[in-house]
Amino acid sequence: MESDLITFFIGIIAVCMVIITIVAVRVSLEVYKSINQFNECMAYAQSEFKFLSAKMVLTLNEVQDVVLKISSGIAKVTLGSLLIGAVSNIFKKKSN
Q: Per-residue pLDDT tens for 3-29?
């Protein structure tokens, strides 16, 4: 009787160990899948950031070109108005 009871409890312990092993394997597989999905997500994000970075460099170059053209135009207008002012002063002195 006693050996039957011991065998029964050992059987219960063995079943519990099998269940725990199955749960551990299942959790390990889910963690592995999650890590793979995370790596794919990070690779996609890295690719998108590279694309955005390249676009930003192009945009900044275009903005720089526009700013240089505008500042060149402002410099020309300033020089033109200084020239007109100087010519005006010369004619004013001649007419006096």
A: 889 999 999 999 999 999 999 999 999
3-state SS assignment for residue 37: helix
| Token reading at 8 | 């029964």
Distance between CA atoms of 78 and 84, rounded to whole angstroms?
A: 10
Using the Cα atoms of residue 28, residue 29, residue 35 and residue 39 in order, give the sign of their dihedral. Answer: positive
Q: What CA–CA distance (Å, rounded) separates 41 from 29?
A: 18
**Separation of alpha carbons 22 and 32, rounded Å:** 15
Neighbours of 10 (CB within 10 A): 10
pTM of the model: 0.54
Q: CA-based angle 67:69:72, to the nearest 5? A: 105
Radius of gyration of the chain (CA): 41
**pLDDT tens-digit map of 59-86:** 999 999 999 999 999 998 999 888 888 8
Going by the DSSP 8-state scheme, the letter that residue 96 receives in this structure is -
